[in-house]
């Protein structure tokens, strides 16, 4: 088993670096190969069985099964819609609390997505129990404090008592003097050694983590090291570790919290044998239930089921009688590498009953030989436009519509030369169209290759690793956004029911740009669309503008938009908004109408007032005598 551990903050001294090392050590203890990576390119080079994503700031960006580690409270994820979108892109979820489980199932309740939720924690790799130093115990705390000077008043008081040993980046502990003991290497071992030497570890949580029942790294690394844990009240720790750790009432005053910690330290010093039994019992719980080796082993079972359920691998049970699919491949006939790239991705499809349609004027010899080679993998139909007719063709839409006229399968899709569809792309969309007969189309999320950090957005930080890949479309898309040309479904991500093609649709609109949008609008007239909530294809955005449309000069685009609006003006579209959104819009409309009525009443009151009448008369006098005051003229124009 080979896994990729993707760290959004790869190369930075954050907690994810230590966690990544622990995961790698645990994986190797299982006999697996683990590669720590920061980008999608590194994942592709690794070619793993699956990828572990350590932070919700990074979505699934490759064809490999990707499992998101959700050990952050949902309230942090919900601070940006793109974070939610990232989470929804994962194939499976590694959750640290029941609260997160419920949030996920609610989010995905009305989606067709196949996924699993498995328990996973910011734990440690397996360790051999080692008795802690209890001769002169100190209170150790390890933290990068990414959110600032966390628990600063408490740590200052503990420093005054001479019992605190704080570790982490110097910038995180600048307010401490004698208590700061320096930084520790992120090697999966040094933290445990420091905790064992101190004898006692302090485990505290942010309020959001406490409310969500999500444990931090602190509890696991403390008990893994053999040290005694003093923990702030937390439901998970109470339930799982019970009386094998000591507790701190964080609702007490600062002085009382310090006093309670001092009492615990005195008890440990006076009762070393009982304290050792406690630490050994806590370590046994950790070893039995929470080692990363155990968690990864359980994940392997979920992974094996998922790759079959989501058809990442080809099933021998797949029948040749399954729904037929034709993929229209738009090729210039000039770029052999791009053509080969797309055809290879078609070859890897787990859905077998598919063929390719290519419309051409002329293909170079190299491309012709590539097509001949792939003819042994799947049928390829070349639609030859004769020279006479091609001289009359003056639009980009002509080749696409020529292919549409030749579709004879159950479903069809459109691919651009150089685009990639992931192995389960066709099966994912076919399964939706087969299952929901009322659907006309099904589409997936798209990975877009672009320049690094070209659209990081306001939610990015300077700590994140630049990546050439990103999610291309904010999904799911609503029809009105398509018709206003704000955003659109990339054709590479879509399969449509061939029954939607009628006598009107096969007529070439003679468009020099926006032909994709016109096709999507016409398909939308004829059938509803469903988003799969899966990432199944990849495009290169260097030939696309900011809206994901083929590059064209503004005049050509404006002309095409006006023609499309004219051609589609009389067509009825199916309702694509949910009842909840309709209700929200109705509420907003009612509020706007109420505000308008109030404004009208205020204007009526002003017009009836003596002051307003005197002002209007004064302006009339000024105009009558030819006097010019800019303020007066401006007010008069608004009467």
Main β-sheet: number of strands, strand sense, barrel status?
9 strands, mixed
Structure class: alpha/beta
Oligomer type: single chain
CATH domain fold name of the largest domain? Spore Coat Polysaccharide Biosynthesis Protein SpsA, Chain A
In DSSP terms (H or I, runs of 4 or more residues), the helix count works out at 24
Q: CATH superfamily name of the largest domain?
A: Spore Coat Polysaccharide Biosynthesis Protein SpsA, Chain A
Secondary structure: number of strands: 20
> Helicity level, as a percent range?
40-55%
Q: List low-pLDDT spans.
A: 387-392, 454-460, 576-583, 627-639
Task: Identify the CATH architecture of the largest domain.
Answer: Alpha-Beta Complex
How big is the Rg? 32 Å
Task: Bin the strand percentage.
Answer: 15-25%
> What gap, in angstroms, lies between the N and C termini?
77 Å
What does the overall shape look like?
globular
Number of domains: 4
CATH top level label of the largest domain? Alpha Beta
- Average pLDDT, rounded to a whole number, is 85
Describe this structure in words.
The protein folds into four domains: 2-119, Rossmann fold (3-Layer(aba) Sandwich); 138-286, Rossmann fold, CATH 3.40.50; 325-568, Spore Coat Polysaccharide Biosynthesis Protein SpsA, Chain A (Alpha-Beta Complex), CATH 3.90.550.10; 587-637, no CATH class. Helix content is 42%, strand content 16%. 40% of the residues are buried. Helix 14 links the parallel strand 12 (325-330) and strand 13. The strands form three sheets. Strands 12, 13, 14, 15, 16, 17, 18, 19 and 20 form a nine-stranded mixed sheet that branches. A six-stranded parallel sheet has the order 2-1-3-4-5-6, with helices on both faces. A five-stranded parallel sheet has the order 8-7-9-10-11. With 639 residues, the protein is an alpha/beta fold. The chain contains 24 helices and 20 strands.
